[in-house]
Write a structure and sequence with these properties.
Layout (H helix, E strand, L loop, with lengths): L1 E5 L3 E5 L13 E5 L1 H11 L3 E5 L1 E2 L3 H12 L8 E2 L5 E6 L8 E5 L15 H4 L5 E5 L1 H4 L2 H16 L3 E5 L9 H12 L4 E4 L1 H8 L15 H15 L3 E9 L4 E10 L4 E4 L3 E4 L6 H14 L4 H15 L11 H10 L8
Parallel strand pairs: 1-4, 1-9, 2-7, 5-6, 9-10, 10-11, 11-12
Antiparallel strand pairs: 2-3, 7-8, 12-13, 13-14, 13-15
Amino acid sequence: MKVLTFGEILLRLASPGYSRLFQKECLETSFCGAEANVAVSLAVFGVNSAFLTRLPKNDVAISAVNSLRYFGVDTSKIVYGDGRMGLYYLEKGASQRPSKVIYDRAYSAISLSKSEDFDWDVVFKDIDWFHWTGIDPALSDDMVEICLEACKVAKSKGITISCDLNYRKNLWSSDKAKSIMPELMQFVDVCIANEEDADKTLGIAAKNSNEERGKLDKSDYISISNEICRKFGCEYVAITLRESFSASINGWSGLLYNAKKEKVVFSPNYKIHLVDRVGGGDSFAAGLIYGLICGKDDQEVIDFAVASSCLKQTMEGDYNRATVQEIEQLICQGGNGRIQR
């Protein structure tokens, strides 16, 4: 089983520790990106994963590619062209001060992509699972058409398609997302979302829940999952449930809805003292994909996805470095944090 993820890899510039941006005379560098994060997680789990993007041919891009190769991600499908590396600045929050992300990705190489840059028959030659996110079509109008073409070809080849809705208000408006995402969703087998994503991209809102106030009504999320499957024909919907008590402490759980069985299962809830929450949703997506391709039952799938993303949020950087053994240990032992000798 081989999984291909498609999207943008970025250079991340983060203020050290919990300092404000430019409070200190240096920034910490690493590489990231929703779809790249998923590819890395899957590779760490032992899955044959590949990442597709479009990059400039320069030393920064080569370093980004090498960061993926370090974990065993197949980068042979990456294409190169004009444009620049996208980047973002991160200031990590603490207590009542929220984290901040500032994007600088206009005119990036992938946002300048054209349909002719990707030969999907060649790209999908050895692929069994295709993962993309709502960030991709938000990058440019051409990327909308590229995503649509990719989904059509993947579907014609019987490839399983997953999509993390991943709404980003700094990239496009909710109105534009709602005008584009429903057509793309017709091809999706596995939909991954949170409360805001479903509302801002598909117009499917939770009625009694408020993530920012830590109020979660499980019946809302069952209803959202059911409606997504009914409207778009998805086989599964997975939703992350985050309770934001502060920038430092979050409650973290999730659900998986199986449309064929018309059944929903919930994971345990973890109270996380956050180290770095960016990339938490991507490790959830990777854990979900891993569980499904391994043939785990629904409860095992959601438990693994949530535990995976729980551990990632205790690690610096966007990439998840938690192994299958560590995740399974958390599931079995509940995460008491005792030292392992």
